[in-house]
Amino acid sequence: MTESTKYLLSEDRLPKAWYNLNADLPVPAPPPLHPGTGQPIGPADLAPIFPMAVIAQEVTAERWVDIPEPVREVYRLWRPSPLVRARRLEKALGTPAKIYFKYEGVSPAGSHKPNTSVPQAFYNKQEGVKRIATETGAGQWGSSMAFAGSLFGLEVEVFMVKVSYDQKPYRRALMETYGAKCIASPSNLTHAGRSILEKDPNSNGSLGIAISEAVEVAASRDDTKYALGSVLNHVCLHQTIIGEEAMMQMEMADDHPDVVIACTGGGSNFAGLAFPYIRENLKGGKTRVIGVEPASCPTLTKGLYAYDFGDTGKLTPLVKMHTLGATFMPPGSHAGGLRYHGMAPMVSHVKELGLMEARSYHQTECFAAAVQFARAEGIVPAPESSHAVKGAIDEALRCKAEGKAETILFNLSGHGHFDMQAYTDFFAGKLKDNTYAEADLKAALAELPKVG
């Protein structure tokens, strides 16, 4: 074992293809259904909101999908991203475990999200689209789509969940710097937004509501398409460049993870790191794979595996996923990117097949872990990523208690430089562990669509 801290791939080793886990699963994932007919949807059903190239990737059964050279050219601005051995954190914990993290905060937008915003912008531009409508929770996705839109000459309109819009003004400023328009959601610009505001004028919003608004705008204009930053198969596909790079870098370190960890909200950064390792597990590998989510929005640990709408306004196809119900309103959280009522269908299917574990944490314990990590390694994690940090620290402490020198790999999916108010609140003791009302969850689950 070398004493290296960083493992860096040269640009000529940038992966040339994304990996599609669906090609290797022992049981195929259930198909999306048309909410009107209850039948599997076809390309024509998705064409009003997505370009055909993206639709093809959504349904492909191919194991590998080539990355277009113009996309790889943009990726080279920050990829391959570094793999880092967290030696100082290991020492601080006194653990025999080896801890590595794949650092996605080096992208221009500060997170893993440009891995999919860049190809989505490219495919839309290829098909003559002029405008993109999208949503964002904490602002990571909105920033990334704004960045990608600026590269390919697309207008970008972002509906940002209101609680995050108010909490994170610098995320809004970053989107505007890239040329995008940022709107607090729910808004008065759409029927979906107005209907929510009529019921609750002070609504904090949710990802489900913001998705409804963006989809409505995209469906109503011929020059506009919709882009989603997580959940769907094509997004998980694009993110697998993380895991493919990590595997080469772990080889450079002459090591292999016993445990792979990532936070889960919609599922994209988890899929990006974990899906390549799940592929190896299906061939006989023994890596534990853990998804970590917020206790205030516990989709994998408390949600039902059922067909549901991906948005609150019920404009999307029905997808089978772990869900808290499309009308469920998660309590406010600084990890706004994890406040989504559902989980990626592919991630949900992987959970059902027993190919991953899931756990949940409250936000104050995640911030405590993030501060410990920052004081050891120097990087301030995004609130979403702090869940993965907490999971990795807990696994390292388990190794300490058991006297096991296991190898832990986690995805540090983004930095927290635009989230410092959350840290200020944490240090001031203002950060609370908000919990959802069981009655609200029960009511939302009671509204799940009936699928035969």
UniProtKB/TrEMBL annotation:
Its EC number(s): 4.2.1.20
Keyword Secreted: no
Modified residues (N6-(pyridoxal phosphate)lysine): K113
Pathway listed: Amino-acid biosynthesis; L-tryptophan biosynthesis; L-tryptophan from chorismate: step 5/5
Gene Ontology terms, MF aspect: L-serine hydro-lyase (adding indole, L-tryptophan-forming) activity; pyridoxal phosphate binding; tryptophan synthase activity
Annotated Gene Ontology cellular component terms: cytoplasm
Pfam families in the cross-refs: PALP
Co-factor(s): pyridoxal 5'-phosphate
Protein keywords: Amino-acid biosynthesis, Aromatic amino acid biosynthesis, Lyase, Pyridoxal phosphate, Tryptophan biosynthesis
Span of domain Tryptophan synthase beta chain-like PALP: 77-414
Record flagged with keyword Ribosomal protein: no
Assigned protein family: Belongs to the TrpB family.
NCBIfam families for this protein: PRK12391.1, trpB_rel
Biological role stated in the UniProt entry: The beta subunit is responsible for the synthesis of L-tryptophan from indole and L-serine.
Assembly behavior: Tetramer of two alpha and two beta chains.
Name by which UniProt lists this protein: Tryptophan synthase beta chain
